[in-house]
Write a structure and sequence with these properties.
This protein is mainly alpha-helical. Helices cover 68% and strands 6% of the residues. α1 runs antiparallel to α2. The longest helix is centred in the first third of the chain and has 21 residues, at 10-30.
Length: 69
Amino acid sequence: MAFYRKNIGGLHQAARVAAGLATAVAALVYLTGAAAWLVALGGSAFALTGLVGYCPMCAVAGIGRGGMS
């Protein structure tokens, strides 16, 4: 049983995963110290929302798969 309803579509999911992974990798390559890990963590969280198909901020804003609700 799912505890959430997917609120982002396929293309949006793919874009989130790609952007999140690119951000995480770029942070680890170009930044140093704690900043690198914090930005990489943020990018990983962004990619995870794409993998799962649910974005909490989109849910708060009322944005669902059918557009604004």
